[in-house]
Amino acid sequence: METLELKEGGARLSVERGSSRSWLVMQRSSGDFPVEITVGEDASLELAFIVLGDVRVKNSLTVTLAGRGASCRLRGLWLIGGNADVRFDVKMDHEVPFCSSEQMFKGICGGSARSDFFGLIKVAPDAQKTDARQQCHNLLLTEEARAAAKPQLEIYADDVICTHGATVGRLRDEELFYMRSRGISLQEAKKIQLTVFAAEALDIVPEDVAAGLQGWIDAISLSE
Amino acid sequence: MSEPLLKIESLHASVGDIEILKGIDLQVKAGEVHAIMGPNGAGKSTLAATLAGRDNITVTQGSLSFEGEDLVPLSPEERSWKGIFLGFQYPVEIPGLTNANFMKAAVNEHRRQRGLGPISAVEFLRMMKDRMALVEMDSSFSSRAVNAGFSGGEKKRNEVFQMAMLDPKLSILDESDSGLDVDALRIVGTGVDKLRRADNATILITHYQRLLDYIVPDFIHVLYKGRIVMTGDKDLAREIEDRGYDWIINAL
To answer: Is A171 near chain B, with CB under 8 Å?
Structure first.
């Protein structure tokens, strides 16, 4: 997985026919980042966003699956606090048949942070046999934190699989009590719950990068 | 050894504004097994949760002490460190957390409280293997997520497994026999019985006589409307099985 440095003002990238690219975008400072990526025939794209801290970030991402057999795995994780404001506008464009896309976004908001996720999956009339999946789940750690997740499907083909799921929730008391009754402290139980929650958005990320996030998770678990 | 491990005196406890426990008196000594029976809604699960420190329950009157120490101000984890274990009626699923990591976290916290460093990988594996055998769990169990997708029987066996891992002084098993087929009941029953020692104690909350065939209790208490209304020996369970609770309730 290569690190991709996004610059304000926008980026246009492509994954050429038959090739595969895997990019990691780490975001620790504010900005407005429009990105357009085209994926060619039998090409595959892996892209993971990790947004950390007290930042104002807007990611506008369009992925166009432009050649038959193209595939995309998209991940996003935000661990934000303070007055952070993180917005994802994701458009997954299935233009041709036999393409697949799979998206997993996870957000943890502490402090007075807020996140907005808007995810559109568009399947063109010609794009039969599309397999498109999208999940966005959020955990709020404080009364002040906010999150919104709005999935949208526009499907013009009839032989496709499209699924989506979106949730906004809090740490589960039942789980916390269960862990505490086994002697795991409240603080440790929260960390475990957050780590497990975040892990699903880190499956394509190198282990050392994922391990490096533990400090952020531990810090945000103190959010009250 | 005659000092009780657990001493409950005139305990009243509420969930929200509703008083559920209305004056419980109970003493449990090391080496004893107590069964608590009673009709639905009597307060059995509330009593179990109160002992474990569930935060939606408020102790309003009376006292609760463990080895002479007041339990009421202690958090659930502090109670666990002191040696109290609650076997859940409905064990909680934690997707994404393996049984092995769950138990490693728990065992290491217990060790830390005793001033010990983290358990070695070798010792932990040996311990897992040994305790899994007690409840007839196969080796895939340790890498499965905690209770996620477990059958009812597997969940209850997992509770007994966790009990064995933590080696508590006092175990409160809340309907460990509910929802079990005969094989799972045998595994749970014999598993708990094997953990019985002169220096630990068990409170079994149950609706049925059948669990008590495996773990013969020293005392049986009948809980009704938040009070213990009758205490007897093991034969009381059989009588309840035959006659129900009406004869006890009607005599009050």
So the answer is: no
| Closest C-alpha among A146, A21, A12 to residue A71 | A21
Q: How far is CA A107 from CA A86, A153, A186, B37, in A?
A: 10, 21, 21, 45
> Could you give the number of structural domains in chain B?
1
The pair of structure tokens assigned to B235 is 């034969």
**How would you classify the pairing of strands A2-3 and A20-27?**
parallel
Domain residues for B137?
Answer: 6-250
Best residue in B92, B104, B162 to probe A by mutation, most A CBs within 10 Å?
B92
- What ipTM score was computed for the predicted complex, to two decimals? 0.96
Closest Cβ opposite residue B77 in set A175, A180, A193: A180
With respect to residue B89, please indicate whether it lies within any of the assigned structural domains. yes
Q: What is the DSSP letter of B179?
A: T
Summarised one tens digit per residue, pLDDT across range B48-91 is 999 999 999 999 999 999 999 999 999 999 999 999 999 999 99
A134 within a domain of the structure (yes/no) = yes
Contact, B212 vs B206, CB < 8 A?
yes
Paired sense of beta strands B6-15 and B57-66, if any: antiparallel
Q: Which CATH number goes with the domain that contains B54? A: 3.40.50.300
Closest alpha carbon within chain B to A180: B77
Q: Which domain holds residue A100?
A: 2-170
